[in-house]
Prior knowledge:
The protein is mainly α. It has helices spanning 2-25, 29-57, 59-78, 83-111, 114-145, 154-157, 159-173, 187-206, 214-241, 254-284, 289-295, 297-318, 320-344, 350-376, 384-409, 423-448, 457-466, 472-480.
Amino acid sequence: MTAAFMDLVDVTIVNIALPSIKNDEGASFSQIQWITAGYALAMGAGLITGGRLGDIYGRKRIFLVGIAGFTVASALCGFAANPEMLVVSRVLQGATAALMVPQVLSIVHATFPARERGKVFGLFGAIVGLGAVSGPILGALLTEWNLFGLEWRPIFLINLPVGVAGLILGRKFIAESKAPKALRLDPVGVVLVVAALLMLLYPLTRGRELGWPLWGYALMGGALVVFAVLVAYEKRKARKDGSPLIELSLFKVKSFAAGAAVQLTFGLVTGVFFLVWTLYMQVGLGWSPLRAGLTGIPFSIAVSAAAGISVQRLVPRFGRKVLQAGALLMAAGVLLYLFEARHFGLSITPWQMAVPLVVMGVGMGLIVAPLTDAVLSEVPREHSGSASGLVNTVMQMGNALGLGLVSVVFFGVIDEPLAPSAVGAAYAEAFQHALWWVAGVLGAIFLLMFALPKRPAQQVEGAEAAGDAPGEEAGRDERELVPAP
Length: 485
């Protein structure tokens, strides 16, 4: 949970500081996008491999390697000499997060029996909310305080004590576990995944700046071909030695396939909204980082509260309808925000934003925790690492795609260069345009959720486990645990 918290805070804490990084370092808009998208891309491309490494070499061991690397990369980000070095350090940070993050859910999946996992995922949802609350506030305060004259840099350096704490706690309390079946790495699969993602995201991010050249469209079209080659290769790899990078058989599990599609589109929503929201408040409205960070508190508290009760109380009773209600509530909050942004214009206040943000936060909270549980609940334990990595990968892919689409849905409607007096109105209009996109994607998510199971499978599994012979469930768990090296 400490590692999950650090990763979540790192994402939200960076968003709030992006305008300050742009001003202090002279970063271009594409570099600002790559500070966030580079992290998401590296993390998304490496998550499946990170999950597989945990299955092969031990989830505890890879978790500790990942958290140590993440801490070092955070230090490099904090001491970056220019925007280029910051982008490279963020890519390294994303790559090490790819080793750390998938172990979180796979350790939970391998350690806890089905009837107890709901409580753990409820705690995970609360941690998600706490990270969402803490990140913007910490980012705003650390940026405003300008500690030791370091400006925005403490937003990364704060990871150092948290990372050390995670290493100490992880070594002491986590039990080692591996997949019972010996697996192999798939370097060709890794190369194909990275190539396809880069071919898709690089033209999206740079296209507007470069005037949408023909080669950009060719690269994006070629990415689809590479994805097709990846699928064919993974099928062949599975037949040859049973150790593909992507366990395609997981997509035969209906709950996993549907949940992955929802994760992808939900990641796209968050990628677009949080970046354009930050730019709207700090550049368009001219607010300080602290004012912008405090404005997000109602949203973050609403996410945390709703996530905490959704798995424990609502999903067991209402099942899939809870997630669908969350998508509709988020869409309603976005449309209400759109109305208020138009009505109040540049004179809008944080108090006037509070109501739509609370509605959006409750909707998001109803989705985040139960969705993770729904996706993984029917996955065989021997594939828990691969499944966890794949779930996080599609979410990060969606997030990176959303960040890339900011060039289209936000910057694409801003005519540059802008006179200083025109910046506020242009950013406000672009923000409203982006909100229409967000609302539309949330409507698509609502429809996709009809493919999810009506009730979480773990309830059925848990009920069956309750009738097992004494020690049977424990025996299944113990077979997954191996002595720590």
